[in-house]
Amino acid sequence: MSSPSSRPENPTALRERFIRRVSADSPFYRLFDHLPDLAFFAKDAQFRFMCASQRFMDRFGIADESGIVGKNDFDLFPARLAENFRRDDEEVLASGKPKLHIVELFFTDQGIPDWFVTNKLPLIDNQGRVIGIMGTVQSFEGKKQVLQPYLQIDRALAYIREHFRTGVSITELAQIVHLSPRQLHRKFVETFGASPQAFIMKLRIQATCEALQKEGAQITEVARDLGFCDQSAFTHHFHRHMGLTPLKYLQQFRLRRA
């Protein structure tokens, strides 16, 4: 125990000395291997994976970390998902600020959506420069284990899952979960960082992207099947979420496939 007259060490220097002593064979992120439904990854400034938790690698059938180092999202995910991930990564690298509670939507082979909650933070070197991104990914099923106050959201999600293609009334959705529209809005923002309307629209746009990647897909038919009766409004929403028009997206996808 320190004597009363000794000066306390500078906390920053104390931490830095401790971090330097930690061996590369004892990475902190191995802790994530023991947290249910939570995965960890880190990328360099070229968006290449530098490390990942075992749960993250299991998704791709990768047994050893050396099998993921140097790969990027386009090596592991469908192009549409990789494009979304890259856009978020670029924003974190450029701003040096975290992006939290990102709702990533995936579709099963049956076309049923499932969602994950992603957090991304910048990796900073000793000179204060942003040199990469680190993040966590958690399934909503896993996250709701710690979201007991918000389990009413689960009923809302089940309804959205079944009806997002034909349209979801926020008033009707609120009635199903026995909340007022204002309460529903607040719970969605607290859980997903987005309003129910924004959540549903993102789901519809990503379903559109899935549909446009099918052989012979036509933009007008896809838009109509996803409940977009107004072509102009559909183009506006698509561009707002994806950063390009549906036509440009379709052209780029077909060019890559060719």
Identify the notable features of this structure and list them briefly.
258 residues; alpha+beta; five-stranded antiparallel sheet; 5 strands; globular
What is shown here, in short?
With 258 residues, the protein is an alpha+beta fold. The chain contains 12 helices and 5 strands. It is globular.
Q: What is the strand and helix layout of this fold?
A:
Layout: H1 11-21, E1 38-44, E2 49-52, H2 54-58, H3 73-76, H4 79-95, E3 99-107, E4 113-124, E5 130-139, H5 140-143, H6 152-163, H7 170-176, H8 181-192, H9 196-212, H10 219-225, H11 231-242, H12 246-257
Antiparallel strand pairs: 1-2, 1-5, 3-4, 4-5
Please characterize this protein's 3D structure.
With 258 residues, this protein is an alpha+beta fold. The chain contains twelve helices and five strands. It has a five-stranded antiparallel sheet. A hairpin with a 5-residue loop joins strand 3 (99-107) and strand 4 (113-124).
